[in-house]
Amino acid sequence: MTESKEEKSTGIKAEQALIEKLKTIRSVAEATGQEIPINEINFHLSRNVLHEELGYFGEFSSVYTLSNETKTVLLVHGRQDASYAAANTSSILKELQEVRVTIRRQNYLLIFCALLLLVGFFALS
After folding, report:
1. At what angle are helices 5-32 and 38-54 packed, to 10 degrees?
2. Coil, strand or helix: which one is 125?
3. What is the pLDDT of residues 90-122, one digit of tens each?
């Protein structure tokens, strides 16, 4: 299947919009001295794809000819995929929070041990 000029320009517009959004995210992160948040990049990437298919960047000419049964199956699978992605994301965020707490505790323990070593060193000298 070949792309028409309209499809190419729509794709280019979508790509340019995404690039501009990512530049903005990078600029804000650099200005605040923070890391670029990957979840925000992922959100804008997926939203850009959605907006392209909805025709926000120009007419999206792909036509899907599907039976009602196929549409229903696709909708159900799409909802299942979204539910699975949400559940996985929730689990990953919970695990990440637990890892952060563990690392924080280990850092405090390391500092405490270093202080004990210093006190012991100065007590011996």
Report:
1. 160
2. coil
3. 999 999 999 999 999 999 999 999 999 999 888
Does position 1 have pLDDT exceeding 70, yes or no?
A: no
The DSSP string of 25-83 is: HHHHHHHHT----HHHHHHHHHHHHHHHHHTTTS---------HHHHHHHHHHHHHHHH
**4 DSSP 8-state letter:** P
Extract the tokens encoding 33: 């001295």
| pTM of this prediction exceeds 0.85 | no
User: Where are the domains positioned within the chain?
Assistant: 1-63, 65-125
Burial grade of 57 (CB within 10 A; 0-12, 13-18, 19 or more): buried
